[in-house]
Design brief:
The complex is a heterodimer of chains A (376) and B (73).
Chain A (H helix, E strand, L loop, with lengths): L17 H10 L11 H11 L4 E7 L8 H8 L1 H14 L2 E9 L3 H12 L3 H5 L1 E6 L8 H10 L21 E5 H13 L5 E8 L5 E6 L4 H7 L9 E4 L5 E4 H4 L6 H6 L8 E4 L6 H14 L6 H20 L3 H14 L7 H15 L1 H5 L11
Chain B lengths: L3 E6 L9 H5 L4 E3 L5 E3 L9 H10 L5 E6 L5
Antiparallel strand pairs in B: 1-4, 2-3
The chains are: A alpha/beta (376), B alpha+beta (73).
C-alpha cells in the first residue's frame, strides 16, 4: 500500500514532453475507468490534433455503485491525480482542464478543490469543476463531454470521437483519475505502474479499497480483505459490466490485464464482488439487471427496450421459477442487443448476464419460485 | 480493389419506424421491439438502389451508407 498511503504533497512536476507518452506506452498503462484502453494511444490521438486547444477531463464520476476506489484516491492523493492532469495538459498543449467529479462524492470533491487551491496560478486559472450526476452512464466519456458542454450526461453518437471533437468542440482527453495518478507515477519514476486499486465488495470480511501489486491473485485479494466464507460460490470480476467466475476457478487467477484477458475476463472498473453466502445467484442477477436496465439513458431502442425485457425475463425466472420460454428469450435477446447502442451500456449488461447464465447454469435451469420481494 | 459500402444506423436518432426493413429485408431485420438489426455484410451491387432509398426514406434520417476502404485479403 505504498502509493495510496504515501503523503500527498505537491512537488515540482518533472519536465515532460512527447517522451512522457513513450514512457506511458513502455509502462503498458491502460485506462482504469473500465474500458482498459491503452493510454498512450489516447494521448497521441489528442496530441496530433491539439494545436493548443485540447481539453483534459479528469474523470472522477465513478458511477458504478460498487466501486469506491476513485473517490478514495481523490480523497487521499488529490495532488497525485492533479499531477497527472497537469502533465497531460502540458504534454497535450491543453487550454482547459475540467474536474468531472460525482455529485455525491463530497469528500473527494473537497479534497480535490483543496489541492487545486495549492497549485500554481496558471493551473488554477485553466481549471473548472463540473459535477457528474449519480448515474451509471455519466462516467462514459461521451456522456462526460455532453454534460460539460450541454448539461446533459448522456452518451452521444460517435463519430465524432472525443479526440476529434469534445469539450467546446476541441480535441478532448477524458481520463479516469486512477489512470492520471499512474501517469504521474510513470513521469516521476519512469517505471511501469506495478499496482492497481481494487474495490473489494460483497461477502468479504472487510469490504473497501485495497491497492494490489500486479500478479496478486483474486484469492490473495480476497484474503487481504479479510477473507470470504469457504462456501462462497462465485466472484464478480470487474463490476456490473464484468463477469461472474466460479470461486474455485477464479481463486488463482492473477489480477493483471493479460492474465485476466486469457480467461476472457477484465479488471473493468476494478470491483471484485464476492457473492454473499446464501444469496441466490439468479435473484442477485435479476436485481443487477433491473438496475442496469433502469440506468439506460433511454436514447437507443435496443438498450432501452432490450435491457428492460432481459431484466423482466430474469425477474420472472427469479420470482416464478424456471421456464424454458424465458430461458430461450434470454439466449436470443443477449445476442440481439449486443453492439446496438450508441455507447456500450447494453454490451456491458449483456456480458454480465451471459456470464451469469453460464456460471449459474444449474441454478437457472432449476430455479424454484421464490416469490422474493424486489430489491431494486 | 474497390471500397466496400456498408449500412450504418444512428442508434440515438432511430425511432424504430421499420421502413428500412420493409425496403431491404435482405440486409435489415427488426428485433422484437421493432428496431433494425443490420446484416454484417457489405451492400451487394444489385441492392444499392434499395439501400439508397432506405437512406432517403427513413423518417428520422437515421440510416446512412458508409464507405470502408477495401482490405486486401
Amino acid at each position: 500500500m505504498t502509493r495510496l498511503h504515501a503523503p500527498d504533497v505537491m512537488s515540482p512536476l518533472p519536465r515532460a514532453g512527447g517522451e512522457l507518452i513513450d514512457a506511458i506506452q513502455r509502462a503498458g498503462l491502460v485506462g482504469r475507468g473500465g474500458a482498459g484502453f491503452p493510454t498512450a494511444v489516447k494521448w497521441r490521438a489528442v496530441a496530433e490534433r491539439s494545436r493548443g486547444q485540447a481539453v483534459i477531463v479528469v474523470n472522477g464520476a465513478e458511477g458504478e455503485p460498487q466501486s469506491k476506489k476513485d473517490r478514495v484516491l481523490m480523497s487521499m492523493r488529490p495532488h497525485l491525480v492533479l499531477d497527472g492532469a497537469f502533465l497531460a495538459a502540458h504534454v497535450l498543449h491543453a487550454r482547459r482542464v475540467v474536474l468531472y467529479i460525482g455529485e455525491r462524492h463530497d469528500a473527494a470533491r473537497a479534497a480535490m478543490l483543496r489541492a487545486l487551491a495549492e497549485r500554481p496560478d496558471h493551473d488554477r486559472r485553466i481549471t473548472s469543476l463540473v459535477s457528474a450526476p449519480a448515474r451509471y452512464v455519466a462516467g462514459h466519456e461521451a456522456a462526460a463531454i455532453h454534460m460539460i458542454n450541454e448539461g446533459v450526461a448522456t452518451p452521444t453518437t460517435a463519430p465524432p470521437y472525443p479526440f476529434e471533437r469534445g469539450v467546446d468542440g476541441a480535441p478532448t482527453l477524458v481520463q479516469n483519475v486512477e489512470t492520471l495518478a499512474h501517469v504521474a507515477l510513470v513521469a516521476r519514476t519512469g517505471m511501469p505502474s506495478s499496482t492497481s486499486l481494487i474495490t473489494m465488495a460483497g461477502a468479504v470480511a472487510h469490504p473497501g479499497v485495497i491497492e494490489v501489486e500486479s500478479g496478486m491473485t483474486i484469492g490473495g485479494a480476497i484474503e487481504r480483505a479479510g477473507g470470504a466464507a469457504a462456501s462462497a460460490r462465485a466472484v464478480l470480476v470487474g463490476g456490473y459490466f464484468g463477469s461472474w467466475v466460479d470461486m474455485q476457478r477464479g481463486w488463482n487467477i492473477s489480477l493483471d490485464p493479460a492474465a485476466l484477458r486469457q480467461q476472457s475476463l477484465g479488471l473493468g472498473c476494478g470491483v471484485i464482488g464476492v457473492l454473499s453466502h446464501g444469496r441466490c445467484p439468479v435473484c442477485e442477477t435479476a436485481g443487477i439487471m433491473r438496475y442496469l436496465a433502469g440506468e439506460s439513458s433511454a436514447q437507443c431502442g435496443p438498450c432501452f427496450f432490450g435491457l428492460r425485457a432481459l431484466a423482466d425475463a430474469v425477474t420472472r425466472i427469479a420470482e416464478s421459477g424456471t421456464n424454458g420460454q424465458d430461458l430461450d428469450r434470454l439466449r436470443r435477446w443477449t445476442v440481439d442487443v449486443t453492439g446496438r447502442g450508441a455507447c456500450r451500456h447494453p454490451d456491458g449488461a449483456v456480458i454480465f448476464l451471459q456470464s451469469s447464465l453460464q456460471v449459474f447454469a444449474d441454478e437457472f435451469a432449476r430455479h424454484p419460485a421464490h416469490g422474493l420481494r424486489r430489491t431494486a | 480493389m474497390r471500397d466496400r459500402l456498408h449500412l450504418t444506423v444512428d442508434r440515438i436518432k432511430c425511432d424504430g419506424r421499420g421502413l428500412c426493413a420493409e425496403l431491404l429485408p435482405e440486409l435489415i431485420r427488426l428485433d422484437d421491439w421493432g428496431y433494425p438489426i443490420l446484416a454484417n455484410a457489405s451492400i451487394p451491387e444489385h441492392l444499392l438502389p434499395l439501400a439508397q432509398r432506405a437512406v432517403e426514406d427513413c423518417p428520422v434520417l437515421a440510416i446512412a451508407i458508409r464507405r470502408t476502404a477495401a482490405v486486401k485479403q
